[in-house]
Design goal:
Protein name: Centrosomal protein of 70 kDa
GO cellular component, one term: centrosome
Number of strands: 0
Structural class: mainly alpha
Strand content: under 5%
Shape: rod-shaped
Oligomer: single chain
Radius of gyration: 53 Å
Order of helices and strands: HHHHHHHHH
Largest sheet: none
InterPro entries: CEP70
GO molecular function: gamma-tubulin binding
Helix content: 55-70%
Keywords: Coiled coil, Cytoplasm, Cytoskeleton, TPR repeat
Length: 246
């Protein structure tokens, strides 16, 4: 018995023992130990052992709870030490906690990656927008859309430069500017036609065109006959040839 008490005393005195566990006892037990050349105090030893026993039972409950949590969070699970009949250690609980923390960190890193339902919804939406009937047609249509987009982007950039617009000007501004430019060109062409025909009235323009339409076919026929009679091919040679005939 004394040997067992001495062993317990050495355990309680070790640096690994929790502080405040070892306390000197007073009374018959202490006197008895002194008479037999031993010095140890165990008045708080039974409550401490009971507390340790409760903690060991709580350790099993904690291990069971952590195992349930790991089944929900961790994809890879280790074998339960209880299955092998081995006692539960703090290292086993720490291993489970580390595995859970690692799984949570990995999920946080991958949380920004889109899920399969999200990717499927994106592909379906693309098919609806661009009239793609099958998945095999998604990539060709993507390439076609990309090509058209590049062509449109280049065209808009060239229009911005030609029209001396800011690069941030929206397409509506470009269209309005092109429309105004077309109006200016049309007005200029109308003025030139009016100056050419010597009139400002649209009805007069129509009459002039009708007169020219009636005049030019006979005139052209006359010129062709003259060229044939005079045996020449150039209009500029008609007058000199007629003068020589005189």
């Amino acid at each position: 018995f004394l040997k067992v008490l001495s062993h317990i005393d050495s355990v309680l005195r070790s640096p690994r023992a929790p502080p405040l566990i070892y306390k000197r006892s007073k009374g018959p037990v202490q006197n008895y130990m002194k008479e037999n050349g031993q010095e140890c105090g165990f008045e708080h030893l039974p409550p401490t052992i009971e507390m340790w026993a409760d903690q060991l039972m709580a350790l099993k409950d904690l291990h069971r709870s952590l195992r349930k949590l790991s089944l929900e969070l961790v994809s890879c699970h280790t074998a339960d030490p209880q299955d092998n009949g081995e006692p539960i250690r703090v290292e086993d609980l720490q291993f489970i906690v580390d595995a859970i923390l690692e799984e949570i960190e990995n999920k946080e890193k991958n949380s920004q990656a889109p899920s399969l339902p999200t990717l499927f919804a994106i592909v379906s939406h693309f098919q609806k927008l661009f009239d793609v009937n099958s998945l095999s047609g998604v990539y060709p249509r993507m390439n076609e859309v990309y090509t058209k987009l590049r062509e449109m982007t280049n065209a808009m950039r060239n229009l911005h430069e030609l029209l001396e617009l800011d690069s941030s000007a929206p397409p509506t501004v470009v269209v309005d500017t092109v429309g105004k430019l077309c109006d200016i060109i049309n007005e200029s062409m109308t003025e030139q036609v009016q100056q050419l025909l010597g009139t400002q009235d649209i009805h007069s323009i129509i009459n002039k065109l009708e007169e020219h339409e009636c005049f030019f076919p006979p005139f052209q026929a006359l010129i062709q006959d003259l060229l044939c009679l005079l045996e020449i091919s150039n209009l500029d040679d008609i007058i000199p040839t007629v003068q020589n005939l005189k």
